[in-house]
Design a protein that fits this description.
11 strands; alpha/beta; Rossmann fold; about 250 residues
């Protein structure tokens, strides 16, 4: 286990001065860089209209992320759709609900929130089964979202209004890190779209979540630092434990 001196996290740099990653860097004297491996691009109005979806035929909108809210209101503006005051909004979390204040006046009677995940939001939606829901989504929406809506016979229309695409990472071609940290399968896809001949060599790979781990293994690579695990429920905890052991052994 070679000593870990540098980590590249395939996500945006955390906002503010406090982050477990900053604490990790201080604790182990690490260089930690942040670089999004994926980015979101909005579907243009022409492609949206080709989907033949009439937003105004719906009485409620389901938001699964802040991105879905941003691109819903963008599409409405670009397509010159005036969203009625009566439109209701159902958000996976309260954070998304409060985020809607960027676009609408926050009123509890028109904004409904789940607790932490989509199943908790579906419990709320089921109490409003008479609504007709519009579900703006990305090309990478998880199938369990629509599966739950179908299970409870919720009337909804799904349409793609933004896409997840690989970032340009060409400037990293000659840069090496001891650890690459991934949070999604799309980060792995981006790595190989940018560097088709990528060789792991002595680089360690950290992967969060079963789908991310599978994406790494499907490429014939080994996950050195999996998360979450029972004794390390977060990525930074898993990294901390690995680095503590690796740097101790390399002395």
């Amino acid at each position: 286990m070679d000593k870990v001196k540098s980590i590249l996290v395939s996500q945006p740099r955390p906002e503010g001065d406090k982050s477990p990653y900053f604490d990790l860097a201080d604790k182990h004297n690490l260089k930690i860089d942040f670089r999004p491996f994926i980015q979101v691009e909005g579907v243009d109005v022409k492609d949206f209209r080709a989907q033949r979806v009439n937003i105004l035929e719906h009485s409620a909108v389901i938001f699964t992320s802040k991105n879905s809210a941003d691109h819903f209101f963008r599409i409405c503006e670009e397509a010159r759709i005036t969203v009625p005051e009566s439109m209701k909004y159902f958000c996976v979390t309260e954070a998304i609900g409060f985020y809607l204040q960027n676009y609408v006046v926050y009123r509890k009677r028109k904004i409904f929130c789940g607790k932490t995940d989509f199943p908790s939001l579906v419990d709320v939606i089921r109490k409003h089964k008479n609504e007709r829901y519009y579900l703006p989504c990305s090309d990478q929406m998880k199938t369990d979202v629509t599966a739950l809506l179908d299970k409870y016979n919720i009337r909804y229309t799904r349409s793609e209004i933004y896409r997840t695409v690989s970032s340009d990472l060409s400037d990293l071609a000659d840069v090496n890190y001891d650890v690459l940290a991934f949070y999604s399968p799309w980060g792995i896809r981006s790595l190989f779209e940018n560097f088709p001949d990528f060789k792991k060599n002595q680089t360690r790979i950290a992967a969060f979540g079963l789908s991310t781990i599978k994406a790494v293994e499907d490429r014939g690579l080994t996950v050195d630092i999996p998360a979450p695990v029972p004794n390390a429920p977060s990525m930074t905890m898993a990294l901390d434990q690995y680095i503590t052991l690796a740097n101790k052994k390399s002395k």
